[in-house]
């Protein structure tokens, strides 16, 4: 079907919510918090969870007062005992452990003093259970999620997705990890139980009374929040006591905007066995691994042969190019701190550790010598590789054009609208689409109706280049595969500091797009009709409107 036909033109004359009334009865009630407020009679869950978001005080720092946070509390009503893994004395929500094929019902109660809704980041679920901001509920209201776990074995997470409040609510604590297992994974000799460990990475800034400090100025929001304290699993200065054997560490970047370059200080490579919500076909080894907000990577860390008492420190290694050129120049002058950087460009990103500077993340101390350890498998799971031939638009990819006009981060030349989609954002159910993600700061109209850079696809011109920075692009719904990554002719010396850290061979839902890069992905749109968001996972950018949506019909 041509994207220029009359039916699509007529679609653009109506609001998405207006159209959805016919296709999805009750969508208009979403704004009143009435959709999914009661369980479905015909849905028989294997797992039932009651989850509540509310204010709390938690001992985040070791000394001084507790920290005021927003926190998810959960209670298992039905299902295996290991479904919920509570983290004691922690602001993070409990780890939720699923098995593929389980039917899940979650009662979400909003105990906050502001609107909220939960997004299950990485899970392939129906529109009504995806946490679209149209379903945001008010204080005191309830929302009922119902879905079947369709994902492969892997690591996902959940977090607030309240429009224009996502960044601050996630910063205040509304997030947690999800794991999924399946039969293929269970047949592998992978580290399990106490040797399968979460590694949630976040940065925060605290005042002298241990209270969270967040940015509110527009200039800081344009770069995104960057804190001065690194937290791992909700705690600072984290050290794991490990045995001389292999571990699986599920690394999740839960920061608002910080990009990590994971690596060992001595240059020892890292091995990954999984990326966003899925195991790889075979292990991948890199000198370091880039991890943008919203991305996950399952690490195989083997301490075999290490002497008792030895200590290893994982760092975020230095890199450049993720921030606007003026920021990068000032970072060099400031020696890695972003404090005071507002002087030359009005962008300080929270006044903490600068984006791309080197800092320690977490320590590992070998405390016991053992000889029993699983061996790294040569192959992990069967993998269905998608190529351009699988896409029904292989010669006409859908665009996701990233632009950063002053104070207006946008996608395809538009800010987010709850009740609008562009013509090419209408996607038939069951289709497989090629999508091209690129930076486009010049902005003129392109063939799809999006605004297109004067230098062509991926071009940057004029003031846009001065605002060019890296963007983690997250697509809701079904996961996708990366088929190509091309670096442009700009800032290639900086690009060299990150280019070996991308793992593009697995299933993804979030991809880091560096300045000048052009990335092509293949994404299926199967199983569910409805509205599925795509946006920058720099959460400050998302709240400023750097978000759009596909309408699957």
CATH architecture of the largest domain: Sandwich
Kindly estimate the percentage of residues that lie in beta strands according to DSSP.
Answer: 35-45%
User: What strand order characterises the main sheet?
Assistant: 12-11-10-14-19-16-17
Task: Calculate the terminal CA-CA distance, rounded to whole Å.
Answer: 13 Å
Total domains: 3
CATH superfamily of the largest domain: Cupredoxins -  blue copper proteins
Strand count: 34
Helix content: 10-25%
Q: If you average the pLDDT, what whole number results?
A: 88
Assembly status:
single chain
Uncertain parts:
1-29, 342-348, 443-447, 449-463
Q: What overall form do the CA principal axes indicate?
A: globular
Find the CATH topology of the largest domain: Immunoglobulin-like
Top-tier CATH class of the largest domain: Mainly Beta
Major β-sheet profile: 7 strands, mixed
Question: Which structural class is indicated by helix and strand composition?
Answer: mainly beta
* Cα gyration radius (Å): 22 Å
Q: Total helix count?
A: 10
Write the layout of secondary structure elements.
Blueprint: H1 6-11, H2 16-23, E1 47-58, E2 67-78, E3 84-85, E4 95-99, E5 103-110, E6 118-121, E7 142-148, E8 154-160, H3 166-172, E9 175-181, H4 183-186, E10 196-204, H5 218-223, E11 229-232, E12 235-236, E13 239-243, E14 246-253, E15 260-264, E16 270-275, E17 278-286, E18 289-291, E19 296-302, E20 311-316, H6 325-334, H7 342-345, E21 359-368, E22 398-405, E23 408-411, E24 426-427, E25 431-439, E26 444-445, E27 451-452, H8 463-466, E28 471-475, E29 480-486, H9 492-495, E30 507-508, E31 510-513, E32 518-525, E33 530-536, H10 539-543, E34 547-552
Parallel strand pairs: 1-5, 4-9, 10-14, 13-21, 22-25, 24-34
Antiparallel strand pairs: 1-2, 3-4, 5-7, 6-8, 8-9, 10-11, 11-12, 14-19, 15-18, 15-20, 16-17, 16-19, 20-21, 22-23, 25-32, 26-27, 28-31, 28-33, 29-30, 29-32, 33-34
């Amino acid at each position: 079907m041509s994207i220029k036909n009359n039916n699509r033109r007529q679609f653009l004359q109506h609001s998405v919510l207006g159209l959805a009334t016919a296709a999805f009865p009750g969508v208009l009630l979403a704004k009143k918090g009435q959709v999914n407020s009661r369980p479905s009679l015909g849905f028989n869950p294997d797992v039932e969870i009651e989850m509540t978001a509310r204010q709390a005080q938690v001992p985040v720092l070791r000394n001084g007062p507790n920290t005021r946070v927003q926190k998810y509390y959960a209670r298992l009503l039905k299902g295996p005992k290991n479904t919920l893994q509570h983290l004691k004395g922690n602001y993070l929500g409990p780890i939720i452990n699923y098995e593929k094929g389980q039917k899940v019902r979650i009662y979400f109660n909003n105990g906050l003093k502001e609107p909220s809704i939960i997004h299950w980041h990485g899970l392939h679920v129906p529109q009504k259970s995806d946490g679209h901001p149209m379903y945001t509920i008010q204080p005191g209201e309830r929302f009922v999620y119902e879905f079947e776990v369709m994902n492969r074995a892997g690591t996902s997470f959940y977090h607030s997705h309240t429009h224009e409040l996502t960044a601050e609510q996630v910063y205040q604590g509304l997030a947690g990890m999800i794991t999924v297992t399946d039969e293929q994974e269970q047949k592998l000799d992978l580290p399990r139980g106490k040797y399968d460990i979460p590694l949630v990475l976040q940065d925060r800034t605290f005042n002298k009374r241990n209270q969270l400090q967040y940015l509110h100025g527009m200039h800081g929001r344009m770069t995104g929040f960057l804190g001065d304290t690194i937290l791992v699993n909700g705690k600072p200065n984290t050290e794991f006591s490990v045995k001389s054997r292999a571990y699986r560490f599920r690394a999740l970047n839960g920061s608002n905007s910080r990009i990590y370059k994971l690596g060992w200080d001595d240059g020892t490579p890292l091995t990954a066995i999984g990326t966003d919500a899925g195991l790889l076909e075979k292990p991948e080894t890199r000198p370091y691994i880039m991890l943008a907000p919203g991305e996950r990577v399952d690490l195989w860390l083997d301490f075999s042969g290490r002497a008792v008492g030895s200590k290893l420190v994982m760092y975020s290694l230095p890199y450049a190019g993720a921030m606007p050129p003026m920021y990068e120049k000032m970072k060099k002058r400031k020696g890695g701190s972003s404090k005071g950087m507002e002087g030359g460009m009005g962008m300080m990103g929270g006044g903490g550790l600068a984006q791309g500077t080197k800092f320690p993340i977490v320590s590992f101390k070998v405390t016991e010598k053992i000889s029993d350890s699983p061996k790294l498998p040569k192959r992990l799971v069967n993998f269905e590789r998608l190529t351009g031939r699988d896409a029904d638009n292989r010669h006409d990819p859908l665009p996701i054009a990233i632009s950063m006009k002053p104070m207006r981060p946008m996608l395809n030349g538009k800010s987010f609208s709850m009740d609008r989609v562009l013509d090419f954002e209408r996607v038939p159910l069951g289709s497989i689409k090629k999508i091209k993600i690129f930076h486009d700061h010049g902005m003129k109209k392109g063939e799809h109706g999006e605004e297109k850079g004067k230098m062509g696809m991926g071009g940057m011109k004029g003031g846009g280049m001065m605002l060019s920075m890296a963007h983690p692009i997250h697509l809701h719904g079904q996961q996708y595969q990366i088929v190509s990554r091309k670096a442009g002719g700009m800032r290639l010396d900086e690009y060299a500091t990150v280019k070996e850290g991308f793992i593009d061979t697995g299933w993804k839902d979030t991809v880091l797009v560096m300045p000048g890069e052009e990335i092509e992905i293949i994404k299926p749109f199967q199983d569910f009709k409805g509205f599925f968001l795509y946006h920058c996972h720099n959460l400050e950018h998302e709240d400023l409107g750097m978000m759009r949506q596909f309408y699957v019909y």
